[in-house]
Design a protein that fits this description.
Chain lengths: 415, 68
């Protein structure tokens, strides 16, 4: 993605923009400043470059329903970061971590404008379409501008030798085809706030990208898979046991050891990661729940280290082992056919694809105990599959082993 | 013997009296307040002007290492 030129960042489309609803609003109503002054510096006094940082003040009058949800949006509240930082630390260290967060992490906070008008400030900001308000954010200028090093590269096939996600390659789908505005804008706990119904329904707002109701989910579109009647034996065998990505994703990026600090030279915050690499790791599901019932899932290493925030204090992550460093992940590089899904043996007899203890850094073994695979699952092929019965209902079902018949049990108890 | 031709008679024209001019002149057009100047649009829709008036680009030293 080529960077925007300085003039591009502030150029307004003189033909199209005035014809829009937003184009009827005087500039100063949102951006402040003085629209009667010809001198640039005078007219820019008090200028608000990103008025939608105050969503309620700038967008709420016309979009009250969306703005009302804004506080629940993970893009706004960054709750996922706070959740994992809090879990790995003690309250006494939260002040130092908050300073760290403000310097290094809060730039991920996105305003309405950074999705619908401009590109995110974290990648330089600026208008991407002559100040036109786009209901659908741009995949490259908005979504993957931030979600680029992992999701963007995987989805668009930017890793050498690895194909793009089939949803992009063949489906020509963009992010919003799965990740709707409803998900992005956030939702309150009480469903009846927007969806009047008979019964009260409470679904807690997501406090992490992988919390709560799974949305989006593959089965929403791939219904025969969900129903178990697509004729694919592996779906029948592993339905519910494995996340879809275990069989259908390919190698994806993992990162090690991110350390943050303020530069002595420039006074600017910066980060440095020890390493990043392509990996594929199947492990135990660390967040197994009703919404994510899988026993095995794909895991990605996140670049958290015990001394990641050493610049801000000693031992700020006293509970470092509270969470795994190999985390639940949904790589966006889905393929119909993958090496691990060629056959049962291709996966079950290949320990390289499983996160075993030898692949975990010794300092992180304790943290990753919940996800490490101690014993590679073996292949247990049933003699008769459900598909066989569907094909030929007269198929003779062999007797169950290790269970005595009722008559045999009665005889043994009498003797 | 031919029928008599009626004599043309003078017909009094109705004259609408003109109004006396009033002491206060009445404007024939409504006064229009001039539109407030909007230098924002004048400048921000002119690519060449934006290039001319752009602040000098500051060199950004990227000290980050590795994937973000």
């Amino acid at each position: 993605m080529a960077p925007l030129e300085p003039w591009e960042k502030v150029l307004v489309d003189n033909e199209l923009y005035p014809e829009t609803v937003h184009g009827q609003i005087p500039c100063a109503d949102c951006h402040n400043g003085d629209s009667t002054e010809e001198d640039k510096h005078v007219s820019h006094e008090g200028l608000i470059p990103n008025p939608s940082l105050d969503a309620e003040g700038s967008c709420g009058d016309c979009h009250p329903d969306v703005v009302a949800m804004n506080e629940f949006s993970l893009h706004t509240n960054l709750a996922g970061y706070h959740k994992v930082l809090d879990a790995r630390s003690e309250p006494e260290d939260h002040e130092a971590l908050q300073e760290m967060f403000g310097n290094h992490c809060s730039s991920c906070h996105s305003s309405c404008g950074e999705c619908h008008v401009s590109q995110p400030n974290s990648v330089g900001g600026g208008l991407i379409d002559g100040h036109m308000f786009n209901e659908t954010p741009s995949m490259t200028r908005n979504c993957t501008a931030c979600h680029g090093s992992r999701i963007g590269n995987e989805y668009l096939g930017k890793h050498e030798g690895l194909r793009p996600d089939v949803h992009f390659r063949q489906g020509r789908m963009s992010c919003v085809d799965c990740h709707t505005g409803h998900e992005m804008h956030g939702q309150p706990a009480q469903c009846n706030d927007c969806h009047p119904g008979i019964e009260d329904s409470i679904i807690q707002p997501a406090d992490h990208r992988y919390s709560g109701v799974q949305t989006p989910r593959c089965e929403t579109c791939h219904v025969p898979v969900a129903l178990g009647n697509d004729g694919i034996e592996m779906h029948e065998q592993h339905s519910g046991d494995l996340s879809c990505q275990v069989c259908h994703s390919i190698s994806y990026t993992s990162c090690d050891g991110c350390h943050v600090a303020i530069s002595d030279k420039t006074g600017n915050p910066f980060y440095a990661t020890d390493d990043h690499y392509l990996s594929f790791a199947i492990g135990k599901n660390p967040i197994r729940s009703y919404d994510r019932p899988y026993e095995y899932v794909t895991l990605r290493h996140v670049p958290i280290a015990r001394d990641s925030y050493a610049f801000y204090g000693d031992d700020l992550l006293k509970n470092f082992d509270a969470l795994p460093t190999w985390v639940y992940t949904t790589p966006h590089n889905i393929q119909r056919e993958t090496p691990q899904a060629e056959s049962c043996e291709a996966c079950h007899e290949n320990p390289d694809w499983f996160l075993t203890a030898d692949k975990v850094h010794p300092d992180e073994l304790t943290a990753n105990l919940p996800v490490i695979v101690e014993e590679i699952p073996s292949v247990e092929k049933p003699e008769i599959s459900i598909q066989d019965l569907i094909t030929d209902p007269t198929t003779e079902i062999p007797p169950a082993e290790n269970f005595a018949s009722e008559e045999e049990e009665t005889q043994s108890s009498d003797s | 013997m031919a029928a008599p031709v009626p004599e043309p008679q003078a017909v009094a024209l109705e004259v609408t009296p003109t109004e006396e001019p009033t002491s206060t002149p009445v404007d024939t057009e409504e006064s229009v307040e001039p539109l407030p100047a909007d230098t924002c649009v004048d400048c921000h829709t002119d690519k060449d002007l934006l290039i001319q008036t752009a602040d000098p680009e500051e060199e950004v030293i990227n000290e980050n290492e590795g994937e973000g």
